[in-house]
């Protein structure tokens, strides 16, 4: 069933290449490392399909194909995925920045219409997150354009670029809870699965 909700691996890779031609930037490599982390963790989770996890990680920011925007990329990604017939991918495009299910927890500006803002707000409130939502939220926080990193480094990278807000602390706590959730599932530290995580974090 899930296979009908996401692109094939070949199509996903083609979509990312197409997006890179339209709007090149660090977000491409970030997406690739998010995908790799998702696959590596999912490979140790009996309830998750590693290829599906990879595809969702690869395209979680696909809304950036439409240009340099802030949080608009989420709604653009949702609309793009729905137009292609991929509702699970569309959901990930909206949920990947929102472990608290609050629209204003995102680090960025909602550069969209009032109607679009309300749609995203209602979508987050009404959507029951599954392990794919949670996995991409976690892996988004494990991936820099240069490679895998400790969550703390990624959180500070985002905060330094966008600033912090009243939900920042709770969002950070939620991200670490996701780490604990998957580590309990796989029975070991997620960092043991990510090649070069220490070297990239500390630029060794």
From TrEMBL:
InterPro entries: HD/PDEase_dom (IPR003607), HD_domain (IPR006674)
SMART domains given in the database record: HDc
Domain of life: Bacteria
Pfam entry (one): HD
SUPFAM superfamilies given in the database record: HD-domain/PDEase-like
Residue ranges occupied by any HD/PDEase domain in the UniProt entry: 23-154
Record Gene3D superfamilies: Hypothetical protein af1432 (1.10.3210.10)
Protein name per the record: HDOD domain-containing protein
Lineage: Bacteria, Bacillati, Bacillota, Clostridia, Eubacteriales
């Amino acid at each position: 069933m899930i296979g009908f909700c996401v692109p094939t691996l070949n199509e996903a890779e083609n979509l990312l290449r197409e997006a890179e031609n339209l709007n090149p930037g660090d977000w491409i490599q970030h997406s690739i490392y998010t995908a790799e982390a998702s696959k590596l963790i999912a490979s140790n989770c009996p309830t998750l399909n590693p290829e599906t996890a990879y595809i969702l990680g690869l395209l979680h920011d696909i809304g950036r194909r439409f240009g340099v925007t802030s949080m608009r990329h989420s709604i653009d990604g949702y609309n793009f995925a729905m137009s292609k017939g991929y509702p699970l991918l569309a959901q990930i495009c909206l949920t990947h920045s929102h472990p608290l299910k609050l629209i204003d927890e995102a680090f960025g500006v909602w550069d969209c219409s009032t109607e679009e803002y309300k749609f995203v707000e209602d979508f987050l409130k009404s959507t029951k997150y599954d392990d794919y939502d949670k996995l991409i939220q976690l892996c988004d926080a494990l991936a820099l354009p240069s490679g895998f990193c400790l969550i703390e480094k990624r959180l500070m990278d985002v905060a330094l670029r966008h600033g912090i807000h009243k939900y920042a602390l709770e969002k950070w706590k939620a991200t670490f809870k996701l780490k604990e959730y998957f580590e309990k599932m796989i029975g070991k530290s997620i960092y043991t699965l990510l090649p070069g995580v220490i070297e990239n974090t500390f630029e060794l």
